[in-house]
Design a protein that fits this description.
- Residues 14-55 form the RING-type domain.
- It is an enzyme of class 2 (transferase).
- Keywords: Coiled coil, Metal-binding, Transferase, Ubl conjugation pathway, Zinc, Zinc-finger.
- Residues 135-169 form a coiled coil.
- The chain has seven helices and 21 strands.
- By secondary structure, the protein is of the alpha+beta class.
- The chain has three domains: 1-78, Zinc/RING finger domain, C3HC4 (zinc finger) (Herpes Virus-1), CATH 3.30.40; 123-252, no CATH class; 283-467, SPRY domain (Jelly Rolls, Sandwich), CATH 2.60.120.920.
- A hairpin with a 3-residue loop joins strand 13 and strand 14 (387-390).
- The longest helix has 109 residues, at 120-228.
- The chain is elongated and about 160 Å long.
- The relative contact order is 0.07.
Length: 474
């Protein structure tokens, strides 16, 4: 045999089952396996699978038995177990250098001559003591890989769940958009049909009157032709009658109709108008009510909890309560917001001074409030009936660009995931005009915040109204 002594059995053993090859097959990458072992490693996969040794692409179904390798295995199987393949002597010596069991001839005269050698029995006893350490290393390696596999499986579950949630959210949002667009299309179609029917009826009526008058004129034209051929006496008698009748018909000529018909047209900004309508229609509306336990003593809340105004007479201080505002004439909503998306609207009307936004749940409510995000307040307010200002991290609030008309209704949109608190002019029932937005992730739960501000001797007596599904409370 051509192989080095003691190594032939190792070379002719399957790397998967560690036994002599049984019906060996050789992959394109050059590695050989038992046909059954490779089939088990491939599992139920059909087609190309990675080689168990080097991960190269392998096609198990296309491999045929390696006959040359099978014959070598057959010849080796004839060598008695525990004997040298080359000298057929018992394997009685252990070579520490090569970590191989060899016969006496290989140890004294062959390839292992001069190596570190031990009797097989002594090597067996020594290596037996090392077995627990090897087992421990194997167990630790398995534990590490099992932990890695568990982490990957958890990541796989999270990925699948994230994709599922994403698809669900996409389907839900697009479904709402489709419903909105279908409803808008139906509404516009009905409006176009109504306008078309009214315009058509008016035009048909006008056209009928015009045709009737034309028929009278044509009849008079025929009469005039007939009179032209009459004798003198008859002509004069009939002509006077005919001309008198003709002048009366001409005098009764119906005036041109004034058809003030507003026909539906697609304007240049039609898509923008639809987008603005859709933005408002799809806002995730959150119904809010004022929380009386947080209200300043001078505030008067309606029984429904959606109307708040400052009393003309300043109320005496209430008992110390950490939930209640004692300096700011403010109130919070009952609803605690901690995740998701929310949208609500507040009717401010012509109230000259107010402030709206959110307040961190853990922020203090006693004493003078510092309106800044670092103090747990994200606010937009109006001052002196004309200046809109955002309370940012600065010595003074940031004044917003002046507007032609101050907003009578404010819309607030809060997204915890996106880190956005946006303010809109919601005065137009079909559109939202952006005013300002804080773009930062909130540190925790918040409550919608409403600063009604002082009565100011009647100059700021108007209330703040929470807008519900049926509109603001009167």
């Amino acid at each position: 045999m051509a192989a080095a002594p003691g190594l032939l059995r190792q070379e002719l053993s399957c790397p998967l089952c560690l036994q002599l090859f049984d019906a060996p097959v050789t992959a394109e990458c050059g590695h050989s396996f038992c046909r059954a072992c490779l089939a088990r490693a491939a599992g139920e996969a059909d087609g190309t699978v990675p080689c168990p040794t080097c991960q190269a692409p392998t096609r198990p179904q296309a491999l045929s038995t390696n006959l040359q390798l099978a014959r070598l295995v057959e010849r080796l199987a004839q060598v008695p177990q525990g004997h040298c393949e080359e000298h057929l002597d018992p394997l009685s010596v252990y070579c520490e250098q090569d970590r191989a069991l060899v016969c006496g001839v290989c140890a004294s005269l062959g390839a292992h001559r001069g190596h570190r050698l031990l009797p097989a029995a002594e090597a067996h006893a020594r290596l037996q003591t090392q077995l627990p350490q090897q087992q421990l290393q194997l167990q630790e390696a398995c534990a590490r890989k099992e932990k890695s596999a568990a982490a990957l499986e958890q990541q796989l579950v999270e990925v699948e769940e994230t994709v599922r949630q994403f698809r669900g959210a996409v389907g839900e949002q697009l479904g709402k958009m489709r419903l909105f667009l279908d409803a808008l299309e139906s509404s516009l179609d009905q409006e176009a049909e109504r306008v078309g029917a009214e315009a058509g009826a008016a035009l048909q009526k006008e056209l009928g009157g015009l045709y009737s008058y034309l028929e009278q004129l044509r009849q008079m034209e025929k009469v005039l032709e007939e009179v032209a051929d009459k004798p003198q006496t008859e002509f004069l008698m009939k002509f006077c009658l005919v001309t008198s009748r003709l002048q009366k018909i001409l005098a009764e000529s119906p005036p041109p109709a004034r058809l003030d018909i507003q026909l539906p047209v697609i304007s240049d900004d039609f898509k923008f108008q639809v987008w603005r309508k859709m933005l408002r229609a799809l806002m995730p509306v959150t119904e809010l009510t004022f929380d009386p336990s947080t209200a300043h003593p001078s505030l008067v809340l309606s029984p429904c909890g959606r109307r708040a105004h400052c009393a003309e007479q300043k109320a005496p201080p209430a008992a110390e309560d950490p939930r209640r505002f004692d300096k700011a004439v403010a109130v919070l909503a009952r609803q605690r917001l901690a995740e998701g998306e929310h949208y609500w609207e507040v009717q401010v009307g012509d109230k000259p001074r107010w402030a709206l936004g959110v307040m961190a749940a853990q922020a203090g409510r006693r004493g003078r409030l510092q309106a800044a995000p670092s103090q747990g307040l994200w606010l937009l307010g109006q001052r002196d009936g004309k200046v809109l200002e955002a309370h940012v991290e600065a010595k003074e609030p940031r004044a917003l660009p002046p507007r032609e008309q101050r907003p009578a209704r404010i819309g607030l949109y809060l997204s915890f995931a996106d880190g956005v608190l946006a303010f809109y002019d919601a005065s137009d029932p079909d559109a939202l005009e952006p005013l300002f937005a804080f773009r930062e992730r909130l540190p925790g739960p918040v409550f919608p915040f409403f600063d009604v501000c002082w009565h100011d001797k009647g100059r700021n007596a108007q209330p703040l109204l929470l807008v519900g599904p049926e509109g603001p409370e009167a």
